[in-house]
Amino acid sequence: MDVDAKVTIIHVIGGIIAAFLSFALTTGLISGINNEAIAILIALVVLYISGQVSERIFGKEAVGGFKGWLWSGIVPFLFIWIVLWILLFNINPVPPIPAGK
Predict the structure, then answer these.
(1) How many CB atoms lie under 10 A from the CB of residue 33?
(2) pTM for this predicted structure
(3) Which of 24, 7, 16, 34 lies closest to 78 in space, CA to CA?
(4) Which of 8, 15, 52, 69 could form a disulfide with 80 if both were Cys (CB 3.0 to 4.6 A apart)?
């Protein structure tokens, strides 16, 4: 397996983790916090950590710099993160809002 595929796998795993954290922060599963802005910031932190991990494992030259990291890392991460976050958010049973409030 070449380096691009391994970098993609690392970022897909990071995207899955970021989606679950974003879902938990959006729905209030983590200590009652309902904040989408914090969920997006956490996802960006996970993306940065995924990039640093892949650069340390394979080396900056093997990853291909920013261009290689963009197509092998950022694009798959963003796709997996957004799609999974939306799916989890839509599957989540939302309690009905009481009448009169």
Answers:
(1) 13
(2) 0.84
(3) 16
(4) 15
Task: At 16, list the tokens.
Answer: 């899955």
Q: Give whole-number Cα distances, 29 to 14, 63, 92, 97, in Å.
A: 20, 36, 11, 18
Q: How many CA atoms lie within 13 A of 89 on its CB side?
A: 17
CB 14 within 8 Å of CB 72? no
Q: With H, G, I as helix, E, B as strand and everything else as coil, classify residue 60.
A: helix
Distance (Å, rounded) from C-alpha 95 to C-alpha 93?
A: 6
Q: 18-68 pLDDT, tens per residue?
A: 999 999 888 877 776 678 888 899 999 999 999 889 888 888 888 877 777
Looking at residue 70, the DSSP 8-state letter turns out to be I
* 38: helix, strand or coil: helix
| N- to C-terminal Cα separation, the chain | 57
